[in-house]
Amino acid sequence: MTPAADPAQRDLPALPHPIRWAAATAAFQIEGARTEDGRGRSVWDTWVETPGKVVDGATAEPGPDSYHRWADDVALTAGLGLDRYRFSISWTRVQPDGTGAANTAGLDYYSRLVDGLLEAGVTPFPTLFHWDLPVPLHEAGGWLSRDTAARFADYTALVADRLGDRVEHWYTINEPAMTTLQGYAVGALAPGEFLLFDALPTAHHQLLAHGLATRVLREAGAQAVGVANNHTLVRALHPDDPADRAAVTAYDILHNRVFADPVLTGAYPDLSQFGHAMPVRDGDLDVIAERPDFYAVNFYNPTTVTAPTGADNPIPFDIVPTPGAPVTGFGPEWPIVPETLTALLLDFTERYPGLPPLIVSENGASFPEPDRAGRVDDADRISYLDGHIRAVGAAMAAGAPVEEYTVWSLIDNFEWADGYTQRFGLVHVDFDTAERTPKASYDWYRRVIAENRR
């Protein structure tokens, strides 16, 4: 990269009006301490212990060891000048088997973290479920079972009872789309089921869990509650080909509309082409569509699709590389096209009249970096974030009601099935020592936040 192209040397992105600034992490990816203080087992514990499931054979223990080094993370959030820190609460640390009484030691940890953030002037913004489903609930049917939604409401009540006096802002479920599509449909992530379209009931039960938890949290005094979903702008490889346009429609339904429409309109899109209807009971959609205080979008990349090959292919689309796009450390499956975030936010604004405020609840990129480092000059990450923050600004200028932007992630972490081979952090972590070293992107993001408050 030439100095003229170095994003660190450009003018900082300036948004058309003030928003809140945040960074995010997730419990399983950063906490470690997998067997301490009564924590139970989640489907991700099973996954990492299964040979071949994690590309580098790594486990999440100890990882960044945030269970013991939470104060270091709080200091990093304060150093950035964040308005909010998005972290997740481990269901198995609070309720080891997914049912029954709360584990006091687990709640004590989150209580310390909340108090530390408040003392640092950073608003705690927890996520109640970021993929760590308790093993006993999985064995009883997991998200295929309606009962799991009820158990999630019970767990939510335990957390709200302990933290609700200090925490007013909540995410319920993180990325139900990825749990359904990658966890249950194609088995790429825990729990590793391969059900194809038979996975669709897991979408309904997660959204029902969101709705039930929303009611619990509001009864406990919450000021803002919403769901955080992974969304993508879907584009055709051959835009003039009717078959490719049909593939776009099919994938947009499965990845985006199945998860957004019920929350924002109170109805599911037509699923007849997939041979399924959702297991909706009377009153379910009223619970799911109880107006959220915000709608949160995790965005990383667009998705390019084309008509499927093979007459007997049960999937009505093929996902293909995006022509001409640079890529992150994940390669062609994660193309970098910032303007597609603008298009997605505007599509939501137009598609859903009366849309609640939007939060970009995750946005970031992984690039190859050393395991041990002093200073990491991560110009590629700065360029990615710079482009996407400007894309948010363009959407805001055109009328999208964006109120918050969140970088994924605050620190390098255990990246699910990719183990420690992908680094997303603004802060480098040595996974042998848990030493934290801010990267160039950390300083850059701090300056962006400061400049946009002037």
Distance between the termini: 30 Å
Strands ordered across the widest β-sheet: 1-2-3-4-5-7-12-13
- Rg on CA atoms, Å: 21 Å
Largest sheet: 8 strands, parallel, barrel
Helix content: 25-40%
Based on DSSP secondary structure assignment, what is the total number of beta strands? 15
Order of helices and strands: EHHHEHHEHHEHHEEHHEEEEEHEHEEEH
What is the strand content? 15-25%
Total of helices:
14
Low-pLDDT residue spans: none
Going by helix content, strand content and strand pairing, the class is alpha/beta
The average pLDDT value, as a whole number, equals: 96
Shape: globular
Topology:
Layout: E1 20-24, H1 27-30, H2 43-48, H3 66-80, E2 84-88, H4 91-94, H5 104-119, E3 123-129, H6 135-139, H7 147-163, E4 169-174, H8 176-185, H9 200-219, E5 224-230, E6 234-236, H10 242-265, H11 284-288, E7 295-298, E8 303-306, E9 318-320, E10 327-328, E11 331-335, H12 339-351, E12 358-362, H13 379-397, E13 402-408, E14 427-429, E15 436-438, H14 440-451
Parallel strand pairs: 1-2, 1-13, 2-3, 3-4, 4-5, 5-7, 6-8, 7-12, 12-13
Antiparallel strand pairs: 8-9, 10-11, 14-15
Helix pairs in contact: 3-5, 7-9, 8-9, 8-10, 12-13
Features:
454 residues, alpha/beta, eight-stranded parallel barrel, three-stranded mixed beta sheet, 14 helices
Q: How would you describe what is shown here?
A:
The chain has helices at 27-30, 43-48, 66-80, 91-94, 104-119, 135-139, 147-163, 176-185, 200-219, 242-265, 284-288, 339-351, 379-397, 440-451, and strands at residues 20-24, 84-88, 123-129, 169-174, 224-230, 234-236, 295-298, 303-306, 318-320, 327-328, 331-335, 358-362, 402-408, 427-429, 436-438. The chain has 454 residues and is an alpha/beta fold. The protein has an 8-stranded parallel beta barrel with strand order 1-2-3-4-5-7-12-13, surrounded by 5 helices. Helix content is 37%, strand content 15%. The longest helix has 24 residues, at 242-265. It has 14 helices and 15 strands.
